[in-house]
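Lab notebook, design round three. We kept the backbone fixed and only want residue identities now. Task for the bench partner: fill in a sequence for the structure below.
Input structure tokens:
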């Protein structure tokens, strides 16, 4: 038995040595061939990607053009809202302004992905946009102190990230953090927990007090579903759940990829993106009357704020008009695509 095991061990060593030598030689040659023909390889790949983008544009051109127009108008709304310099008044306006700006950037990414035929990737990015729209609306309907807590919760997240980075730095190859930096972050965390209570250190701890006022019977830690329900966007739960399959490794995403079926068509992430931008503009719009009530007594500053408010209202009207037209066009194209797909099946 021992002799047999020795033979097997020797065979395994010889096999590993042969494989190592073969892979090294063949691998080096393969790399050299790719490098020698890199222009042709890249050209072939670019042609493939261009064909993919052209196929998408052929079907969705009119809808994506109108979507792009809606995104540019949303950007204009964001700029006009920022021009009111809401940070002069309270954290509420600062938080919503930042979320709004992020939302516009993500919408631009979604558009870029859709134009190049990556509907599933676009759906995944919309998920991030949706989360910002939910938080923005929740803050818009909450008292000002909730937004202050939201902004201060950055301290909690920073400590979590730095602690994890320090814990696994030897495994990730990252340099250990200076002890003074981690201590400074820990001190900041202790101060905000002392100010807001131990529950503040939870995942959505900044929202717990606001939710308790709306749902007195609620218990335990805060969930994103609760925040969604509180701001009236629970009807978006189904598309949000579908978009999660484009983010996480789930049986649904694996099956769809294996069968070469997109999880979604180009229409769904496009429509969802526009809807979430509408919700972001709604959040900003809710803030404007508060801004006016907090208006400075200085006449020049007051007139400046009024002018900015009027420009924002005009941009908001233009955006929402175009946005709903874009949704109609995208839905009509989606209907045609679905009927065509059904007939082929």
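Proposed sequence:
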């Amino acid at each position: 038995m021992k002799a047999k095991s020795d033979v097997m061990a020797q065979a395994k060593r010889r096999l590993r040595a042969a494989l190592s030598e073969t892979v090294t030689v063949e691998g080096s040659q393969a790399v050299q061939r790719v490098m020698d023909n890199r222009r042709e390889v890249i050209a072939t790949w670019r042609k493939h990607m261009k064909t993919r983008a052209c196929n998408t544009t052929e079907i969705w051109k009119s809808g994506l053009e109108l979507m792009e127009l809606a995104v540019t108008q949303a950007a204009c709304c964001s700029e006009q809202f920022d021009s009111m310099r809401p940070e002069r008044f309270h954290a509420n306006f600062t938080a919503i302004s930042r979320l709004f700006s992020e939302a516009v950037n993500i919408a631009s990414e979604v558009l870029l992905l859709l134009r190049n035929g990556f509907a599933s990737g676009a759906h995944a990015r919309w998920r991030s946009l949706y989360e910002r729209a939910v938080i923005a609306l929740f803050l818009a309907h909450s008292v000002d102190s909730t937004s202050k807590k939201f902004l201060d919760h950055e301290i909690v997240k920073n400590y979590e990230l730095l602690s994890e980075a320090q814990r696994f730095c030897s495994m990730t190859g990252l340099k250990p953090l200076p002890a003074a930096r981690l201590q400074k972050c820990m001190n900041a965390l202790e101060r905000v927990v002392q100010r807001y209570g131990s529950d503040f250190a939870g995942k959505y701890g900044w929202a717990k007090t606001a939710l308790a006022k709306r749902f007195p019977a609620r218990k335990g830690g805060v969930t994103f579903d609760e925040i969604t329900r509180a701001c009236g966007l629970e009807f978006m739960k189904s598309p949000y759940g579908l978009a999660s399959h484009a983010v996480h490794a789930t049986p649904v995403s694996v099956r769809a990829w294996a069968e070469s079926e997109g999880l979604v068509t180009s229409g769904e992430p496009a429509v969802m993106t526009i809807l979430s931008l509408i919700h972001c503009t709604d959040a900003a719009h809710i803030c404007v009357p508060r801004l006016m009530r907090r208006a400075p007594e200085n006449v020049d500053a007051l007139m400046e704020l009024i002018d900015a408010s009027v420009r924002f209202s005009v941009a908001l009207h233009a955006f929402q008009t175009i946005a709903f037209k874009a949704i109609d066009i995208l839905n009509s194209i989606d209907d045609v695509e679905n009927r065509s797909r059904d007939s082929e099946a």
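Keep this in mind before ordering anything: The chain has 14 helices and no strands.
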